[in-house]
Amino acid sequence: MNHLSASTPPRRSRLALATLQSLGLSLALTLGGAALPLGSAQAAASQQKVQAPGWYRLMVGAAEVTALSDGTVDLPVDQLLHAPKGKVSSGLKKHYLAAPLETSVNGFLINTGSRLILVDAGAGSLFGPTLGRLAAQIVAAGYQPEQVDDIVITHMHPDHVGGLVADGKRVFPNATVHADQADKDFWLSKAHLDAAPAANKGFFQGAMASLNPYDEAGKLKTFSGNGEVLPGLRTHATHGHTPGHNVYVLESEGKRLVLIGDLIHVASVQLESPEVTIGFDSDAGQARKERLRLFKQLASDGSLVAVSHFPFPGVGRLRASGKGFAWEPLNYSSQVK
Length: 337
Hints:
The protein has 337 residues and is of the alpha+beta class. The chain contains ten helices and 18 strands.
C-alpha cells in the first residue's frame, strides 16, 4: 500500500520544486508530477544571428594579452595552396571543412603595465564587409584606440595594416607603428607598385594608404634584424611570406608568447604537411624554410603561440606529430590568470 498521500509529491519532486523556487522560478505540478503550462503561448523570439564581441584575454607573466577578432573571410584555399592534387581537399575533409574556408583574421593587444601595444591592425575596409572590426573589439575589450602607444606589424599585407586608417585618417592617433625596413622598402615603393602585375597592385596600394599617414606624421619606425623593438618584445626575422615578415616574442616573468603572423594560414592542411605553401607568399621556398625551422623550435620548447589566421582566438601550442605538427588550442578559462 502506498503510504504517501495522493496530494503529496514524492520527496525528489519536492526537492526539485524547492530548488527551482529558490532560483526564482515557479512550477505547477499535477498530482502525477507533470508540468502544467506556465502561461499563455508566446510568439517565437527572433533569431539574432550575431556573435558576441570577439575578444579573449589571458596573462603572459605580468603582461595582459587580449586576442581580438577582426572578423572572418572566405578564402578559396583549394586554389591558393600549392599542394599535390587532392591533398587540400582531403585535409579539409578530415577536419569537416571545405573550400572556400571561412578564415579568421586575428590581432593581439598587449598591456605590459607601462605600454599598450597592438600586434597587427586587421583589414579595415580593404578586404570586404566581413572584416574591419578590430577597432570596435578594442573598445568592447575595455580600451580605446587613442590609448594604443605602439603598433608592431608582422608584415604589410592589407589584412594586417588596413585597420590603421579610416577615411584616410589614423585610427590610432597616438601610436607609433613599427615594421621591418625590408617590408617598407618593398610595399611603400612606387617603383615596385608600377612594376607589379595588375592583380597585385592592390597589395601595394593598400599598404601605402594604410602606412603613409603614419610615415608623414613621423609615426612610422623601422628596424632590421632581430632585437628588442619595445621593452619585453623582441623581433625575430622570418622573411619569405613577405620580404620583411617578422615574428614577435613577448617575454614576462619567465613566460613567453610567440606571435607568428602569417607563418601559416590553413591549419587543416599545413600542420600535417608544413611543406605546403600559399599563393600569398612572396618567396614560397623561404617561407616554407622559416615555417619548418620555427615550428620545430616551438614544438620542442612548448612556447605559447598566437596565430593570425587560425580560428579565433588563435592561441595554443604546437607539438610534433609524424612528419608535421599538431595544434593544441589553449584551454578556455573564465579567469584572467
